[in-house]
Task: structure prediction
Amino acid sequence: MDLTKRIKKQNIAIMGNKTWMALGGVMCFGKWEVTDKVPTAGTDGKNVWYGKEFCEPLSDEELRFIILHETMHKTARHMQVYKQLHKIDKQRANAACDYWINNELIKQDARSSFLKMVDGGLYNTKYDKMTVVEIFKDLEQFKQDGNGEGEGDESGENQCRGAGTDGQGIPMTEGYPQSGGMDEHDWDSLSDEDKATLEKDIEIAIRQGRQLAGKMDGNKPRMLDGLLDGKVDWKKELAEFIKATMAGRDESSWSKLNRRMFHVGYFPSTISSTTGRLAIGIDTSGSIWGEILAQFIGEVKKLCAEVKPAGLDIIWWDMNVCGVQSFEQEQLDGIDQLLKPVGGGGTSPQCVADWLSLNKEMNHECLVMLSDGYVDSFPVFNIPTLWAMTTNVVAENAKTVRIEEF
Result:
């Protein structure tokens, strides 16, 4: 059987498997093809390519692993959400995404023998429950030098490409190889039209897969719940988004640790601060007040102390931009005491998109919109955007997280 027919057969097998059938909608979204143009396999977040020479020798279990690996890149929107990490260090960003995916696949498969990780796949139990950004930062210790050798600890226990098992017979790798993982990640090839609709298209595909799983008595992975309605730790998601889009613009990145912060965790030592500005759009139609606003701004303040943007612009909006409060870096520590909300009638977030376009010279890196989601429409913003919702509303064209508990 040729490779194209084998992949079709394994797609059907995955969609008939109770553990994985919920991913069927995303698997069917976009196009896939067998090609000689990629050395292993790859995706641009919508379409998938399978390298003929690499995939032909794989067993059925390994081929299913590759198919689901690429599907998970699409499902989690890795090519869109973590593009800034790719700009910082392509190999490390690829590896961080692969570690996250492979941990999920192995954990969900629960040693059922339906999947088998391909040789060269990156996996380590230490990354279980870590986010992609946390893994990315941890991998700094394995950054390749000019000879392709890792910079692990002096004991040699954590050297790049070292291998062993997790105690249960599952291969485990440390660090990342020069390729940055077992597959190719195309971060730039999608058209502007595809990028504008991808978030909504993936959401629809996830919902279709969940509906299929429901009818077939299949499993519904918790990960899909979080991707659909934001039922996750909103503080962690907010931190993940801001760090991913604004990380690494200072020269220090995470390569030099701040020893004064060892008692609370690992933080970088800032050598220079060259990040752009952070934009926060706050809906003033009436529902975003009191404790909600206080806790949200409290989290933003803590993140500003860590990420150190050049400045912060808080945009108060309803039907129009009613006011903008701009803070420079040295003022960020006191933003929670200086808020001056204005507005209160109607909700049309297009006014924020227009304001950002008119003020693009301010160099905003990303935007966070705090709202109840009851708006006239969801515009396409010209910078990475996260909607922090106080209701179950899911934004179109951008990632959504629900602020559920205070």
Summary: The chain has 13 helices and twelve strands. The chain has two domains: 3-211, 230-402. The CA atoms of residues 390 and 404 lie 7 Å apart.
